[in-house]
Amino acid sequence: MVCHDFRFKSEEGTEIFVYVWTPEDPATIKGIVQISHGMAETAKRYERFAKILTNSGFAVYANDHRGHGKTAGTLEKLGYLADQDGFHWLVQDLHQLSQIIQEKHPGLPLFLLGHSMGSFAVQRYIMLYGNELQGAILSGSNGRQGIALDMGLRIAQKEAEKHGRTAPSEKMDQLLFGNFNRRFRPNRTSFDWLSRDTAEVDQYISDPFCGTVFTTGFFYDFLTGLKELEKRENLNQIPKDLPILIFSGDKDPVGKNGRGVKRLFRTYKRYGVKDVELRLYSEGRHEMFNETNRDEVMTDVITWLNCHMPQ
After folding, report:
1. Residues 6+ apart with CB under 8 A from 155
2. pLDDT band, very low/low/confident/very high, at 60 (cuts 50, 70, 90)
3. What is the mean pLDDT of the chain?
4. What's the whole-model pTM score?
5. Contacts of 286 (CB under 8 A, 6+ apart)
6. CA torsion, points 170, 175, 181, 185, in degrees to nearest 10?
7. Is the Cβ–Cβ distance between 110 and 31 less than 8 Å?
8. H or E segment at 17?
């Protein structure tokens, strides 16, 4: 596997950092997997899966989202996306990177994989640009949240008005994630909900670029973006022939222990998506690529990718 990186300037002006992993022989690249990572983590955490993908003939591109990792640059800048419309710009960053990828690899199929927050960005992406993809993969996601989302958005707005958009919001962090560890008592750490693999949890905790309490502006922009995912007119824009894979652990609190991702699956089916598949892994928690059965999960994703390559 060959590793390198580059930066590009977003349409809004932010410099975006990108990791690239490719097979050693460029002539063997058969497709591209673009990865959209989760909240309060970095794209570097997907290097293990990138090695599996490159061994299977895929090139992998993964940017550190704005407010994350090397795009943020310093710990002080973590958790703030933009002065306004941060989630919108995060999605636009993904599309801009997709265009760079397609210029670099003309004619090769492009798959977009998103985890957690990154999966919600992919949900929005396929409403806007789904016809440019060969397929989409959603990990650790969720479906319609209704009134709970409305309540959260009101609180986030008040927090931003009271403290300013750049202030970390312990209140919103607790509101969104405070109950996630409850099912896994007695708790060893505050992040037991991520994985059954304690070494992976400890590695996450020890990384200063992971687990940060994000800003009021982030929460307001993120929840505003989630509202777009529930609008009928936006759901109708998803290409009916776009293959979609949804997978999650059935003990993942983000997906309501499977209930939320089942709701998302039914939503896509109801809106006419012809090829949508749901996989729930027994006892799996939030980060299936870092779970104790991660080899099974990665193999399943590779199999799905190969089955959806152009004939």
Report:
1. 171, 172, 175
2. very high
3. 97
4. 0.98
5. 116, 140, 180, 193, 194, 195, 249, 252, 253, 254
6. 100
7. yes
8. strand 15-22
